[in-house]
Write a structure and sequence with these properties.
This protein has 271 residues and is mainly α. It is 74% helix and 1% strand. It is built from nine helices and two strands. Strand 1 and strand 2 form a beta hairpin. Helix 2 runs antiparallel to helix 9, helix 4 runs parallel beside helix 6 and helix 7 runs antiparallel to helix 9. The longest helix has 39 residues. The two termini are 37 Å apart.
Length: 271
């Protein structure tokens, strides 16, 4: 109803017709994807570190904080490159860097140290800085001056909507993926599986020395089931990070739909 109203009113509160501008339409799509990737990653990484790696909330925050350092340093560089290097090239570098950091997160396991979290986080901060300013410049650079305010509102709205969708999607994918992976893995918990029997016997032997044979026989399957749940969740996190990387790669070609912005003293123009 909102869309119909805004497209039919003579003086709409939000002028959606401005999306006829190709640069702004492409920019809104890209910033929406970026918002989904950015907020989605920020939402699930602390959960991964605290639930699977045993980090405290403080340690998880410390591991994620270098993203800001990477973004700050890269912003200084990007600020000097904007106007000298094609915005499309800068945005492409940013999305490829974001894909690279997502694939790094896709290699996580339960034995990684904090550095395996910190460096991909720094890369993502650098990549985001290569995207934000050039993307905003390209999206708004071909609009008339009186359209800038309305377009800026739509641009920021799309980013926030993308972030909300990204958080909702990845939390849903993780919950469902963990159940699906657990259903797949549990089929290997069989008396006919030599690996399962070997692990079960090893845990029983270790527990028997302290708990007795009867308690060890009952506790060992529970311990193995806990390990199964951890591994199911771990694989789900890794798959979702790789999905983010593939989404970055799939989105990158949209950058080449931007019309080149030609700086002028008068109204913005393109060629």
């Amino acid at each position: 109803a909102f869309v119909v109203r805004e497209l039919t009113a003579r003086q709409p509160l939000v002028d959606l017709r401005v999306l006829k501008n190709r640069n702004l339409a492409v920019g809104c799509v890209l910033i929406g994807v970026l918002g989904a990737l950015l907020y989605g990653t920020i939402a699930v990484l602390p959960l991964f570190m605290q639930n699977l790696l045993g980090y405290t909330a403080l340690d998880a925050g410390l591991a994620l904080s270098p993203r800001g350092i990477g973004a700050f340093l890269a912003t200084v560089v990007v600020g000097r490159l904007v106007g000298k290097v094609s915005n499309r090239l800068l945005i492409t570098i940013g999305f490829l860097g974001l894909a690279y950091s997502s694939f790094l997160f896709g290699n996580i396991n339960l034995s990684i140290g904090m550095s395996s979290i910190v460096w991909p986080t720094v890369f993502s901060g650098v990549a985001i800085s290569f995207i934000f300013v050039p993307l905003a410049t390209s999206s708004m650079g071909t609009l008339a001056q009186d359209q800038i305010g309305n377009a800026s509102g739509l641009f920021n709205l799309t980013r926030n909507l993308g972030g909300s969708i990204g958080i909702a999607a990845i939390t849903t994918f993780i919950a469902r993926g963990a159940q699906s992976n657990q259903g797949t893995f549990v089929s290997h918990f069989s008396q006919y599986s030599p690996i399962y029997q070997q692990k079960l016997a090893a845990i029983q032997a270790g527990l028997a020395a302290h708990e007795g044979s009867w308690r060890a026989a009952h506790q060992a399957p529970q311990i193995l089931y806990g390990i199964l749940g951890q591994q199911s969740l771990l694989v789900t996190y890794a798959h979702n990070f790789r999905l983010f990387g593939l989404l970055c790669l799939a989105t990158t070609p949209l950058v080449f739909f931007f019309r080149k912005v030609r700086p002028t003293k008068g109204p913005a123009s393109v060629h």
